[in-house]
Amino acid sequence: MQTYSNSVYGESVETPEHQEIFNPATGDSLGLAPISSESDVGSAVNAARKAQPDWARTSDQERRDAVVRVAQVLEENSEYLAELITREQGKPLSGPGSRFEMQASVGWTQVPAALELPPEIVYEDEERKDTLHRVPLGVVAAIAPWNWPLMIAIWQIIPSIRMGNTVVLKPSEYTPIATLEMVRLINQVLPPGVLNTVSGDGRIGAALTSHPDIDKIMFTGSEATGRRIIEASTRNLAPITLELGGNDAAIVLPGTDASAIAEGLFWGAFLNMGQTCACIKRLYVHESDYEAVVNALSNLAQQMPIGDGMDENNLIGPLQNKMQYDKVKDLVADARANGCEIMEFGTVPDTGYFLPLTLVGNIRDGQRLVDEEQFGPALPIIRYQSLDEAVASANRLDAGLGASVWADDPEQAQQVAVRLEAGTVWINQHGAIHPMVPFGGNKASGYGVEFGLEGLKAVTQPRVISIKK
Ligand code: TXE
């Protein structure tokens, strides 16, 4: 059985403890992932600390070149890593699956390499000149989730190293192997200590985020863990970028052509089996269009091949883990028990954590499947009578990551979009993130933004040089 290891200061580091990782589609063993100890966390942070001053002293151009080399490594190893993602995480190779995740990882590496954040004159008169420089923070702790394990790790790693920080990354305990392999490959083109890993569950995440030598925390995960990380950061005062998932509402405006929007709505809700932070998790449809929208989504759902993602014909895979599988099943069972209409599509294999694609009708605000983040392939479709009521429904929860408005007329949609409380409101698309466009949550979905120039600023601190003339 293959044993995987952490990377610290450019070396492969063994741990005495391991956990076996299984394919969520087949139950097959993938190998042994390391479990770090708290002293391993200290060693990884020390390695990152040791490497940081020299890395920060390299020129901007050298760091850009290094990030370009990382993009090349990702491209060259795309198929190997995509297959590992499919076996470990479950998303299929095809469609918006693991090959797509690798393409996105390459794109989110190339774009920060191309961006510039030069010093900015913020004030000047006859007597003084004040220039704002962006300097690295130091050592970044990156805590990654299991839904898009490589892409989200890249979101955390690349801006950090591009701006002169060094990184200690902890992948999710559900999906460590593909991420550790990616880091092993990337480290062939980075100086020792710039990118290090530790592995394990929340205990190791807590040891990392509370370490006194951490200068910045990047976190994507649950709200509960986000709150723990804020508490942990009182030990190091590290600023945090917190991306805490959401419960995104989509509103279809009255009279919208259902066939024109069905595919966008479908993938908006079922991308990665719904295990995506900015997926449509509540769909609000005017009562006059309800049947047309449900029919259009049902037609698409029943055509989707479900199964092991290593088979290139499959477009829908399993849930990633038992915790998530049980959670989605429980929310659907609750809806069923409360008289909702459960519409299930697809033939589900006997092995693994597969669930049918599920549309849930005759459901209202206040029911658990609407109010709790399902993070899975079960979409509640709620009828509304007036737009004011739909907007109030969309805004009534604490979550505020994304939202979307769907309409034949984008101008009309815009008038509704500005009323929605979310970090991004999409029109006639959902979850359409882009490496140049800042992305982050409002309300309980977190704070801080990733991507683009704003994302680069978030891994730096301002330093003003003020000259008397
Ligand atoms: O998340 P956790 P889980 C949501 C989704 C899901 C729920 C629970 O609704 O059902 O969260 O998933 C690390 N200090 N999202 O339990 O625990 C952990 O090891 C530091 C939405 O997997 O938040 C992992 O690496 N780190 C989300 C990471 O935090 C800690 C993606 C995320 O795990 C820690 C994933 C601690 N005290 C789940 N405890 C999104 N925003 O897309 C755990 N971790």
Automatic annotation (TrEMBL):
Keywords (A to Z) from UniProt: Oxidoreductase
Q: Where is this region: Disordered?
A: 1-27
Keyword Oxidoreductase among record annotations? yes
Q: Which domain of life is it from?
A: Bacteria
| Protein name (Swiss-Prot/TrEMBL) | Aldehyde dehydrogenase family protein
Supply the CDD domains for this chain. ALDH_AldA-AAD23400 (cd07106)
* Taxonomic placement: Bacteria, Pseudomonadati, Pseudomonadota, Gammaproteobacteria, Pseudomonadales
Matching entries from InterPro entries are given as: Ald_DH/histidinol_DH, Ald_DH_C, Ald_DH_CS_CYS, Ald_DH_CS_GLU, Ald_DH_N, Aldehyde_DH_dom, LUC3-like
Which residues belong to any copy of the Aldehyde dehydrogenase domain?
17-464
